[in-house]
Amino acid sequence: MAASTPVTRSRTPGAATGSRPGGRSARVRAAVHRAVEELLAEEAGDGLTIPVVAARAGVHATTLYRRWGSVGELLADAATSRFSGEVVVPDTGSLRGDLERWAADVATDLADPDVLALIRATLGAAGEQGACACRGDREDQLAAMIERERARGGAVPTVERAADALLGPLYYRAIFTGEPGSPDWARGLVNLLLPA
Amino acid sequence: MAASTPVTRSRTPGAATGSRPGGRSARVRAAVHRAVEELLAEEAGDGLTIPVVAARAGVHATTLYRRWGSVGELLADAATSRFSGEVVVPDTGSLRGDLERWAADVATDLADPDVLALIRATLGAAGEQGACACRGDREDQLAAMIERERARGGAVPTVERAADALLGPLYYRAIFTGEPGSPDWARGLVNLLLPA
């Protein structure tokens, strides 16, 4: 997944980014995130421990303990890197068009088994902090699209209501039903929020 | 998990039923579920292993391995017990009234820190199987309320759409935002589904 280039994503909140973006610190972070992805893809989630990740990443375990403290924090950092700044906010000229395209993109992302494995592992190991990392900046993206429509003079829903109508079912289907929604289904959700 | 038996699913939370309610098997299951709840409440989720649960429950670890196989299956069983048959389907005389009361009940349940800890741990350890256990029979409950309205001759949404509009935001808020919705907010969700 895209987390193999987390270095450039420095807008990530709570992330353990190094002060020198291309430096050793960033390389370690990239290697560790990649190791986490690989291990989760191998369904080694149960045995995901700091020493196991360190061995796969080719980094001393002490470096990982010093930087992340626990597997939970490490996973929350990987999730932050993965779910923030990922989906480009579309600009189609209308709020409905923007939301339809954005919801379809989020649905596609949440149908990726690697993404689902990362979310489940992060929820399990990192509790509430990890959960918020899995939401990333998606509510900020909704807010940006809604704000643009408001500036155009259009009637807009609240960000909260948009999150309920779109992110709610998108995450619920992906995580709790084992049947992530299709992009077409996701586009249809916009009708719940903005009746024709 | 259901394979491991548990036979008739109890209508009471956390309670364990065996084929002989009150038999040794049921007592073991009850003790194990209680041990899981206690350990999760102590935020011992990270260290939740079969031997740790066995010690707390006062049961031989071999018994647990034989019955559940892994911590993931054990958690999925605990979640099934907790989330199935929990919320009584209301019967207020109208679909709107039923859904409002039901959504408020689900919101109250999902605001319980112990419930959130169980869901997060189950998702982390039991993957997709665990995720479905955390949804329990809530879509069946929606289906029952919708079917009753249909029998009365009313216009009804599909169960899928009702799940999107109600379970989506209920689970999303509880799990991914760290701020579970209030019962009043949950009642308001029904307006997304059934515009006035």
UniProtKB/TrEMBL annotation, chains A, B:
DNA-binding region per UniProt: 49-68
> Which chain positions lie within coiled-coil regions?
none
The segment(s) forming the HTH tetR-type domain are 26-86
The superkingdom of the source organism is Bacteria
Keyword Mitochondrion assigned to the entry: answer is no
- Region (Disordered) location: 1-26
Q: Which UniProt keywords apply?
A: DNA-binding, Transcription, Transcription regulation
Instruction: Name the InterPro entries for this protein.
Output: Homeodomain-like_sf (IPR009057), HTH-type_TetR-like_transc_reg (IPR050109), HTH_TetR (IPR001647), Tet_transcr_reg_TetR-rel_C_sf (IPR036271), TetR_C (IPR011075)
Q: Where is the composition biased (Polar residues)?
A: 1-11
Which PANTHER family does the record match to this protein? Answer: HTH-TYPE TRANSCRIPTIONAL REGULATOR RUTR, TETR-FAMILY TRANSCRIPTIONAL REGULATOR
Its recorded name reads TetR/AcrR family transcriptional regulator C-terminal ligand-binding domain-containing protein
Whose protein is this, by species? Pseudonocardia lutea
